[in-house]
Structure formats: C-alpha cells, structure tokens
Amino acid sequence: MSYQKRTALALATAVAGSVVLITAPAAQASVVDVNYNCQTPIGAKSAVSPIDIKAVKSGSSYNVTMTFQKGVSSSPVALGAGAMNPSALINLGGADKGTLAVKGPANTAEIPANSPIKISDLSGTYVPKANGKVTFTAGVLTIKALGTTTTCTASNSPGPSLELDVTGAAGSGGSSSGGSSSTGGSGGSTSGSTSGSTGGAPAALPKTGPLDSAVALGTLGGTVVLVGAAGVLWLTRRNQRA
Predict the structure, then answer these.
(1) Are the C-beta atoms of 91 and 32 separated by less than 8 Å?
(2) What does pTM read for this prediction?
(3) What is the pLDDT of residues 5-31, one digit of tens each?
(4) Closest alpha carbon to 187 in 199, 170, 172
(5) Which CA distances in Å does 103 have to 14, 88, 123, 127?
(6) 1, 58, 199, 234: which has the fewest C-beta neighbours closer than 10 Å?
C-alpha cells in the first residue's frame, strides 16, 4: 500500500471516531406508568398515565419537559378554555437530590364534565449541582381550576422516566469550584502561584458537559484532516519537482 493511501486511511479512521463520540447518547429515557391518586374538592379519584420526561442541554443547564400521555382526574363541571392550570414536581435522585418544579400553560380547549383532564406538557429548567447520573421521577401533580386545587400523588412508586449523565456541574466541588473563592485572601493552596500579586487570577471555566468535549474532539479530527491533506500535497509536489 502506498504512503498516500495509508495516510488517507488513518485520517478517515480518526474522523470516524470523532463522529461516533459526537453522536454518543448522554441520557436514557423511558415511558413510565404512574398511578395518580387525586384529592379533589368532590372526593378522591385515581387514574394511570404514562409519563415521559426529556431533557435538552442549553448551555450549563437543561430544558426539561414532562409529558402526560393520558388524562388524569376529572371535573364534575365543564372547564372552559383557560380555566385549568397544571404544575408538578419532578423528584431528583442519584448524584443530585431535591425536586424540580415544572409547569404548563392553561387548557386551550374546553374540558367536558366528568372526562379525564388532559394535562399539557410541563416544562422547567434544571441546573445541575452534582456530577454523575441523575434520575428524574414523576412527583406531585397539582391542578388548579375554578378557584379549587386538586393534588395528585403517585401511589405505585414509579421508576425514573429519565436518567441523565451530568459532568462539569457548577457548585459540585472539586477543582471546578475550588478557585472561585478568590475574595477571601490568598485562596489557600488552590490559588497557588497563579494569583501572584494581582490578588487571584480568574478560575478556569468548568466543563459544560460531554457534548462540548465531543465537539472539541470533532474539531480536532477536522484539524488532523487538514494537516494530513497539506502533508500529502507537499509530498506530491516534492516528488514532481524531483
């Protein structure tokens, strides 16, 4: 095999590896059936709805959407357009703890009496506070309509609808947050010689996630292609001169 062919094959392999890294998934989602027990103004009601939770990275945070595939609860009277406002809590688990509040728009069409209430997509912004795998599980659902409040809780201990692999989270500790406290003097051993006489150099920006690293690798692969192509062109011209 000639030198030019071996070089082209090596460059193609490098680019292919970069593409694989860019398209690697960073989250696992599944639709989970949630059995809601709802305390309504006219008594207890229950319904099962499959819940889907998705997250889209936006800078250092994630736009989270919670989707109800079936209606839950019901009303003894018709609810006119704009009469019902839903919101919910998503329970965080794994590397991060707490809850994420999500809410949705009011109903755009009338909901007939004694029919399941279709919940619109609920959305919120998740800001990671820890690195690792974070789970998102359907929590308490709240429905406000006609001056009343209906609270629905899951009775079947549902599993997570989403598992997100988070890296470079702000405030997660370690080297990404150690240099941020430069106002307290020398900053301890984390500032070291970088602070000098200026009172502390700005901390390095934390990594924002696996996708950014993959994009950087993809850019490196493109640079390797350009350098390799330039080398082949130089060798070809040199042989022609010889």
Answers:
(1) no
(2) 0.60
(3) 555 555 555 544 444 444 444 678 889
(4) 199
(5) 44, 6, 5, 16
(6) 1
